[in-house]
Specification:
By secondary structure, this protein is α/β, with parallel strands linked by helices. It has helices at about 20-30, 45-55, 75-80, 100-105, 120-135, 140-155; strands at about 10, 35-40, 65-70, 85-90, 115. The chain has one domain: 3-Layer(aba) Sandwich (Rossmann fold). Strand 3 (about 65-70), helix 3 (about 75-80) and strand 4 (about 85-90) form a beta-alpha-beta unit. It binds 5-O-phosphono-beta-D-ribofuranose. Its EC number is 5.4.99.18.
Length: about 160
């Protein structure tokens, strides 16, 4: 977005993941967080993954949101190659409804953490909110915008169901 250097990277294993991952991008845009979006596959483009992860810290990324489905190795492999915090979003797969994605992402061995979110849209939105919260620790303006976003969400909850 804009000319600002991205501070959050959103990567996904396939263009087919965009329908889920666009919710992360939209949430970051709403909060005014400079970000980039890339297709990076652990299996189909391993060299692209290597380059992305190895350059992440040096390029100033503060968090990486990685979404993938099925045998979802993208978040874990990214985390293996960078100290930048990685937030994993399990994309809902056709065959197993995202349970395969979830278990592939969440069951990391001790020593290489991936912060794993919910399957699908909720995970993508929450990954963006967590990434924003991480950045907000060092960015008072973003902290204020995030507080405002949360307050607006609270205000929008109806008292009565209809
Ligand atoms: C994974 O395989 C991707 O993250 C995607 O969720 C899944 C299917 O990819 P496509 O066959 O639709 O490209 O690597």
């Amino acid at each position: 977005m804009g000319e600002a250097s991205p501070i959050v990277g959103i990567i996904m294993g396939s263009r087919s993941d965009w329908e889920t991952m666009r919710h992360a991008a939209e949430t970051l845009a709403t909060l005014g967080v400079a970000h980039e979006t890339r297709v990076v596959s652990a299996h189909r483009t391993p060299d692209r993954l290597y380059d992305y992860a190895k350059s992440a810290a040096g390029r100033g990324l503060k968090a990486i949101i990685a979404g993938a489905g099925g045998a979802a190795h993208l978040p874990g492999m990214t985390a293996a190659m960078t100290r930048v915090p990685v937030l994993g979003v399990p994309v809902e797969s056709k065959a197993l409804s995202g349970m395969d994605s979830l278990l592939s992402i969440v069951q990391m061995p001790a020593g290489i953490p991936v912060g794993t979110l919910a399957i699908g849209r909720a995970g993508a939105v929450n990954a963006a909110l967590l990434a924003a919260a991480i950045v907000a620790n060092e960015d008072a303006g973003l902290a204020a915008r995030l507080d405002d976003w949360r307050a607006a969400q609270t205000d929008a909850v109806a008292v009565e169901p209809e």
